[in-house]
Amino acid sequence: MRLSIRHETCYRYDGAPARSTQLLRLTPADSAAQRVLAWRLVLPGPASETVDGFGNRTHLVTLEGPHHEIRLLAEGEVETRVAGPDPALGPLDVRVYLRPSALTAASAAIAELAAGSARSVAGCADLAARVLEAMPYRPGVTSAGTTAAAALALGAGVCQDHTQVFVAACRTLALPARYVSGYLLNEDETHAASHAWAEVWLDHAWHGFDVSNARAPDEHHLRLAVGLDYLDACPVRGVRQGGGAETHRAHADVRATDE
Amino acid sequence: MHALTLPETGHFDEMLLPSGGIRPHYRAFAHWLQAQSPSVLAQKREQANQLFHRVGITFALYGDDAGAERLIPFDTIPRVIPAAEWAKLEAGLAQRVRALNAFLEDIYHEHRIVKAGVVPGEQVFANAQYQPLMQGVNLPGAVWAQVTGVDLIRHADGGYYVLEDNLRVPSGVSYMLENRKMMMRLFPELFARHAIAPVDHYPTLLLSTLRRASARENPTVVVLTPGHHNSAYFEHAFLAQQMGVELVEGRDLFVRDDHVYMRTTAGHKQIDVIYRRIDDTFLDPLAFRPDSMLGVPGLMQAYRKGNVVLANAIGTGVADDKSIYPYVPEMIRYYLGETPILDNVETFQCRHPAELDHVLANLERLVVKEVHGAGGYGMLVGPAASRAELEDFRARLIAQPENYIAQPTLCLSSCPTFVEAGIAPRHIDLRPFVLTDGRETSMVAGGLTRVALRAGSLVVNSSQGGGTKDTWVLEE
Amino acid sequence: MLSRTADHLFWMARQMERAENLARLLDVSLAVSLLPASRGGADVSAPLVLTGTLDAYLARHGEPDASRVLAFMSFDAGNPSSILSCIRHARDNAHAVRGKITAEMWMSINATWLEAREFAQGGAGDQAFFDWVKERSHLFRGATHGTCQRTDAFSFIRLGTFIERADNTARLLEVKRHLLDDADAADYYAWSALLRAVGAFEAYHALYRDAPSGRRVAELLLLRPDMPRSLRACFDEIYKWLARLEGDNGRAAKRLAAELRAAQAYTSVDEVFDAGLHDYLTRMLGDITRLGALVHEAYLEAA
Q: Residues C176, C288: one domain?
């Protein structure tokens, strides 16, 4: 399937920050499941590019001098296909993904949710279903900084929360699990096109679990970055010096294009 | 006459032989000591207090809003190490630091030691101190820990054992330097009678180690501190001053075009080497804790691109973790093909069934620690534990053996120390500081000797009433 | 030097100078408050107007009352403009750059803070306290002069002192403007109080051998280069210390300092009064604020 993406992020400030720095993970890489045909970033200043320890392509954009807004645009075309479990190891030893992070520390409730699950694809799919059942999709309840434990306690969340609770639960079962950020082609418009799902290392390959949609990722999914949690993999992280209150608007438009 | 007494049996005394006689390397000092009147020595101790107080007014009250100060007690009886003993320690420390650096280079690149089955992968990669973002980062000279503090104890058998390696931001070196300055000031005659290896060139050695860490010619070095509210700020300011480099905070630095700059009154200036005294997770809010106000946004990117050197590197904590410690002798064999010169404290890993059996059978004689625990939480001190505590830990060990290690109860050596009622034996440890640029290691002969001031106590930490002593390494 | 270090040194000096100026003003206010209103007395709100804390005071205490104003401006830790707060800020700034100032400077400023807190336990601000504040300020200045190396650090300390002092002298004259503007209202006690506030009482009499007049007081405090608290003297100093700083980034600040110094050197008191004292002082206060901002931009927060 050929997907066309246009992802615009805009930060507006009440004041004017003297300096702001954004770390972007907005560049997809080729894999068995996707081939990048064209991709470009339109950024407000010079960017420096690198590949991080997880293997993600990152850009660092710094704006100096007072500014009232920052606009970031990522757009391109990617050919996707259903590739099944991915045996690619990546630069890191998979056991790194056994480790909890601040956002994915397992609470007793998360451990309890995971307890007894079979350490298999079916067992994980079942666990994913229980996560979604325990915290149905509901936007506005959690925020970017909500931990997995807190989100589960709130009993609701979005894809970020579902994924984080799920990877935290898998890790209590001693299964390496990672957070994936990317895009999803939606038939309905209720879910954002910016998306997150999980991957679990089972039988020597990464198996995907789109917890929020109760299915396996397929050609509707386009991956951007992976990590232990949201902070490692999210498309944009920023800090600024001064600038007062901020409004943030992000819009991702994903379409299937005819060949 | 000063009465010198032996410690409780089972402990080695640095000055006294079990017979009560004086060890050869302490004879000159003991002779001098016996010639001093107690009142003169008391005066000297008072003088030392006042001088430190004054230095304290100069330095130690950082972090205390009320302007009061906390002094770490200083004892005027030195810890003396004979030349031959130091030579062995020095070789052993250098060897250890070489192996630890090789280990760090390996686990952030090819993972050979794990693939070879020498160190279990879970202990390394699932460790919270392992920094995934450092995977594949090439550091100049492959140096990860330019500065290492190694905690040593001397056991009842008279041998030195490594208790812990400190590869993150080891502190205490300023006390080593201040203690020596104080002793020379109070008792200059002692330094005429002994050939004592100097330590005061440590800042020069540190600066040259840091400068050699950069590929740039005439690199700019800075010390990065969390700020004056940090309890070790005294040392940060002291070292910056002694090296003649700027003491900076995160907000003094910024990243532009993947290089790090500091803001000065004459414009911005590129920084090549950062001797950082801030923990990994606070260094860059874009890479680690997003709430860190102490770091520099974008630093990780500049670092990854090789445009700035951090001393020590990010991610070194995995090598001094309790779960990795038992493998250091194996690392020495694996990377260096050498026999370890310094011994570890014997450690039983409960995840091995045979070792677990041994631990369970000897619980009341052992200290059991949680592998990832810190600060004495989740710890069982067998000889001091009640029946119920022992049974509770027995159950925990059986349930999750992989979470625990066990060690024999440590017998720290003692050294005569001034106490209220005269001179009494008190337990001590030793932290030498090892510097390396990847090609060679260097260290000053000595270190920080910490002393537990309460009778019988084995806790030397300053936060729990520990004091310090000057450490003399005798020259041949 | 690190911009942050320069910033701390600059504000250490400014806050200490501010504490001293405030003590001088409160001392006068105390004296004047004892006079009947008809003779320029009862002007107890002057310190509040001068420091821009009148609204905060009114909100908390209502109608200004002499002893309450003195306590509010002397010891109120909740009032960021009180003497106690200024001393605390000065000491905190010194603390942050402890390694860059001498032991004697640090001991002086730290002891000042510790003793000021003890004073504050004791209750109202009185003459003994104001004298003590002036003395501690002299002591700190002395320690600075006697021990501080003449590097950029010293220049930033002096810059902070004189920018603050210029601002204070201009403000003080603006608040007491009615005494200068209106020759008929001139009252010997009010005049002498003002002159004493800036330590110029003796100088005035040595120079003019005469009962004070508005014009002469203004001339003394605005234009005389030999009066250490006059605007003219402050501008001379600011120019001098700025000129010593190396680098190009302070060009705008240096230019403004040179302009202010030249203007002040070639202005006569008649020109000041012809143009209107209020307008003149308003312009001066604006220029001083602008200069402070330029110094800030060029050196203290350089990006």
A: yes
- From the list B158, B190, B225, the residue with the least C-alpha distance to B41 is B190
- Which residue range(s) make up the domain with C116? 1-148
**Chain B interface disruption, residue of C1, C2, C118, most B CBs within 10 A:** C2
Q: For residue A20, list its beta bridge partners.
A: A63, A240
Q: Residues A141, A181: one domain?
A: yes
A18 touches C: beta carbon within 8 Å? yes
Domain count along chain C: 2
Verify that C215 and C253 share a domain, yes or no: yes
What whole-number distance in Å separates Cα of residue A38 and Cα of residue A41? 11
Which residues of A fall within a CB distance of 8 Å from C303?
18-19, 64
Domain carrying residue A20: 2-81+236-256
pLDDT digits (tens, 9 = 90+) for A98-133: 999 999 999 999 999 999 999 999 999 999 999 999
Q: Total structural domains in chain B?
A: 1
* Number of domains making up chain A: 2
CB atoms within 10 A of CB C285: 16
Residue A67 Cα, gap to closest chain C Cα (Å): 15
What is the sign of the dihedral through the CA atoms of B207, B208, B212 and B218? positive
Phi, psi at residue B221, to the nearest 5°? -110, 140
pLDDT on residue A186: 83
CA C45, C47, C52, C57 torsion: positive or negative?
negative
- Calculate the average pLDDT of chain B: 90
Alpha-carbon torsion B380, B382, B388, B392, what sign? Answer: positive
Q: Is the pLDDT of residue C124 over 70?
A: no
> For residue range C5-49, what is the model confidence (pLDDT) as tens digits?
999 999 999 999 999 999 988 887 777 666 555 554 456 787 888
Cis bond leading into C21, ω under 30°? no
Q: What is the pLDDT of residues C26-38, one digit of tens each?
A: 887 777 666 555 5
A239 in contact with B at a CB cutoff of 8 Å?
A: yes
Picking from B33, B90, B111, B77, the residue whose alpha carbon sits closest to that of residue B432 is B90
pTM of the model: 0.89
B393: domain range?
346-408
